[in-house]
Amino acid sequence: ISASSQSTSAAAGVATDASIPKEMKAWVYSEYGGVDVLKLKSNIAVPEIKEDQVLIKVVAAALNPVDAKRRQGKFKATDSPLPTVPGYDVAGVVVKVGSAVKEFKEGDEVYANVSEKALEGPKQFGSLAEYTAVEDKLLALKPNNIDFAQAAGLPLAILTADEGLVRTEFSAGKSILVLNGAGGVGSLAIQLAKQVYGASTVAATASTEKLELVRSLGADLAIDYTKEDIEDLPEKFDVVFDAIGMCEKAVKVIKEGGKVVALTGAVTPPGFRFVVTSNGEVLKKLNPYIESGKVKPVVDPKGPFPFSRVADAFSYLETNHATGKLVVYPI
Ligand SMILES: NC(=O)C1=CN([C@@H]2O[C@H](COP(=O)(O)OP(=O)(O)OC[C@H]3O[C@@H](n4cnc5c(N)ncnc54)[C@H](OP(=O)(O)O)[C@@H]3O)[C@@H](O)[C@H]2O)C=CC1
Ligand SMILES: CC[C@H]1OC(C)=C(O)C1=O
Fold this sequence. Notes:
Bound molecules: NADPH dihydro-nicotinamide-adenine-dinucleotide phosphate, (2R)-2-ethyl-4-hydroxy-5-methylfuran-3(2H)-one
Mean pLDDT: 95
Helix content: 10-25%
Structural class: alpha/beta
Largest sheet: 6 strands, antiparallel
């Protein structure tokens, strides 16, 4: 890049090769274990990009339970090599573009789940870093009505919610029960079922203090799982979206021919489980619903957590009582 274009890019606030550092700050673990294995380091190499990737200056990231389960070694058989920079969800600005990338340019504000397959060879260098490299097919432009922190809380959860609804062939006029309606995935499953797929009835479970939240997200029926048993409900459902690991109970509350999709835990037939696949085209499909305000990110009010407090954020995530998404911002 010539000096003049460098100065032009710098003036425009867009990084050039010369302004991209060789090293960055990132959260890393070199062994599997508890939150204590997480270390904040400042000498991690900025990832080199492949021709189909972009380099993102990370503005915000979000945590997912899979980050914790992966760090605990639960998926070590198919994991990428250690050391690991955790983090699937990212929102930031494109600062470098690979030679094969056509859809994105330097300066684009983007968001993504950085790992196409969550458990099979997830990115070794994820989003809890100042820079991360992502394939263009996993990226979408950030919705224009939400900030980076809100955008970072969407990708893996909204992709999971949408994939679960697609896999159960959920469609207009059908009824659905979402187990764990106040969680990261469930809070979006309620909204997508109602606003995108035209559910006739959305029911959701949550604890007492979160019943009003799930109603505000579109649940017609909010069930207090601390007081009620879903098997005592008078109605059965076309679909149960199990985001907590209660498949054995879920299959007892579906209609004849109904479906149960499980995100975690043991599966009882006819229930089935899947692992989310990242896809920028799905984010692009959902962007209009986000930009219209029909689908809203839910960010846990205890956050956003500053970059220096990622370990604290994981400790809170692992209580299994976060509301919506735990976001890390600014980075
Ligand atoms: N297969 C896949 O591809 C994916 C799997 N997952 C898995 O799905 C599960 C949900 O993920 P995510 O939404 O991010 O999780 P969260 O960490 O967001 O879930 C936290 C929520 O769980 C609620 N909760 C705890 N116990 C219960 C219960 N018995 N019934 C109803 N709600 C309960 C808590 O509510 P309260 O505080 O009121 O108890 C809290 O709001 C996780 O196990 C995750 O690993 C997630 C994404 C993808
Ligand atoms: C087998 C489910 C596993 O995959 C993801 C993405 C999780 O969060 C899990 O628990």
